[in-house]
Amino acid sequence: MPPPPEVKAGSGKRSSRPRSRRLRAFGAPISAASFIGIAAAVFAGIAVAWSVVTALGWVGPLFLPSPTRVILRLNELAATGKLADDTAVSIYRITVGFLISTLFALPIGVLIGCYRSWEGAIEPLVDFIRYMPVVAFIPLTILWAGTGDAQKFLIIWIGTFFQQVLLVMDNVKGVPRDFVNLGRTLEMSEAKILFRIVLPSAMPAIWDSMRISLGWAWTWLVVAELVAATSGIGYRITTAQRFFQTDTIFAYLLLLGVLGLATDQAMKLAHRRLFRYLRVR
Amino acid sequence: MAPPKLVIRDLGKTYRTDRGEVVALAGVDLDVGENEFVALVGTSGCGKSTLLSIVAGLDSMDQGAVTIDDEPIMAPGLDRGVVFQSYTLLPWLTAEGNVAFALAAAGCKPSEVRAIAREQLALVGLDGFERAYPNELSGGMKQRVAIARALSYRPRMLLMDEPFGALDALTRHHMQELLTRIWERHRLTVLFITHDVEEAVYLSDRVAVMSNRPGRIKTVVPIDLARPRRYELVSTPEFQRLHRAVLDSIREESIQVAQLGRALER
Question: Could you tell me if residue A198 is inside a domain?
Answer without folding.
Answer: yes
